[in-house]
Amino acid sequence: MFRLQGSKVLAVDMTGDAVKAKNGSMVAYDGEVTFKKLSGGGEGIRGMVTRRITGEQMTVMEVKGHGTCWFADRASEINLVGLQGDKLYVESSNFLAADAGLRTGTSFTGTRGASQGNGLFTTTVEGHGQAAIMSDGPAVVLRVSAQYPLTVDPGAYVAHQGNLRQTFQSGVTFRTLFGEGGGEAFQIRFEGDGLVYVQPSERNTIAGDV
């Protein structure tokens, strides 16, 4: 159903089924398809309320019918993720599309929002199917194991999946370590067994230079 055309365009072939995608990300389509804007990024009223509380702005649309749709967003690199009943955690700005059968929602991720200023929740995608996530530059997939925990700069973090514990360490980033950062800073530490997706370009955060 999901396939890449180059590294920056997602093609979705539909035969009467549906896909959820970031609002405004469709660049072309053929066949007979319909479009419906979905409120918030979560399931039902609870998802809408959570989005309103956290202030996250992820508006998705449902595309349904017979044909092919092409999606892209600001020439971002696109990565396909296959889910087999597990859960994917992804920054809302990095979400592009998911099978309509996958459940989307939000998850509490700790004290990050107090430092970063953009909410205490991250977007979740769960179930069996495919999802597409975006990154600023080609994403790198890093393995986390019990022997090898991973520490990530929050500006480079895109998503993670697997049996991972996520904690936040305040007071330092990779830049402030060398005297090049400012403001309140922190790192994200992952322990357990799973995968972490990082991008080679750091997004701006309210916390300062991270």
From TrEMBL:
<dbReference type="InterPro" id="IPR016031">
    <property type="entry name" value="Trp_RNA-bd_attenuator-like_dom"/>
</dbReference>
<dbReference type="InterPro" id="IPR002838">
    <property type="entry name" value="AIM24"/>
</dbReference>
<dbReference type="Pfam" id="PF01987">
    <property type="entry name" value="AIM24"/>
</dbReference>
<protein>
    <submittedName>
        <fullName>AIM24 family protein</fullName>
    </submittedName>
</protein>
<dbReference type="InterPro" id="IPR036983">
    <property type="entry name" value="AIM24_sf"/>
</dbReference>
